[in-house]
Amino acid sequence: MPSTLNQLREQLDGLQQQYYLHFAGQPRVTRNLEMMRQMAVRAGALRSELATLAESEARTAALALAAERLELYRGEVAAIDAARVEVGDRGVEAAWLGQRANHVFHRYRRHFAGRSRSGRDISILQEMISDLDAIRGEMATLGDGWRSAQLTRDREIVDNFLGLFRQEVREIKAARDGADGEQAESLFAQLANDQFEQYRLHFAGQPRVSRRPELLEQMCGNLEAILSRMQALPSQGFHGAHNPQNARIVVERLAAWRGELEGIREVRTKTSLSEMVSQLGRAAEVVLEVYNERYAGQARASRDLGLLCGLCDRLVDLERQMETIGRVQTLVDNERNLELVHDLMHMLEAEYDEIDKAQQAGAAASSGPAGAPSAS
Q1: What's the pLDDT tens digit per position in 300-334?
Q2: For labeling, which of 49, 228, 233, 364 is most exposed (least CB within 10 Å)?
Q3: Where are the domains of the chain?
């Protein structure tokens, strides 16, 4: 059955959405050349189908758009191929390592930069240190017998961030140890609430099969440490009115989370590897669906940065699970899912920065002097 003009136009728009997700604004040396070739082939086929339709202004406009997209995609094929040839296989790998490091840096900005140290999650920072250590090791191995100015600069940047992260861990611990009395009561309550929010973002209402048990185990450990500090306050001479109730809530949540942890482990042990890959891929698609519903095309100044941060973190967690599978067995679907996660991370992080910039500009404008002139 022949396609209608509207159907062909929708397929053209779908190709361009694929372009924005997987290619726009990303280093060409890291892009999927075969995917872009297939997009160019598909754009050519759509142009040919459009040419068979009855003449009309709408068909003429669609044909022009198809020709424009075909030229774009063919140009990208040539540019990606040339970029990869220029840097060679090691250059491509070095670019990927730089991308991975940039994702860690962005996670730091989301969770730590410009925020009160005492209230930050040390376990996230320690996880980031472990990630950067691994990337630094891969950079060192890649650089054996191969000189690259870019790789040298990237290694220096990673070293600087590692130093920053380790110093932050020490200062966060010092800030917490310095809290006492009502300040400590408030601090530990806030730290517990932050863990509750993390649970809501990563586990509440989510399919157990795609949840990472190690993350929930880490969060249980965080709550246990917070509970220990809450329970120690009376022995330190502080008997706040809220602390006993706060501790009871933490005890209740811990019991529920441990039960959920066992449930996640049980479900995952009964799930085949192929089904696990499918479920993880579906979880990544859900992130994209939430993004499209809540952020795409919306006024940035009104968007929820906290939710977007949580979506970015969900992708980090999915990436870990997919990489674990990849170390056990090479599966085409898992590699495709991992590529989607990487490209989603790039898109969501870029959007996070734009929203943050828009909201800061809005806050600055609203705090300006009364009676300031405005553009007409």
Answers
A1: 999 999 999 999 999 999 999 999 999 999 999 99
A2: 364
A3: 181-269, 272-362
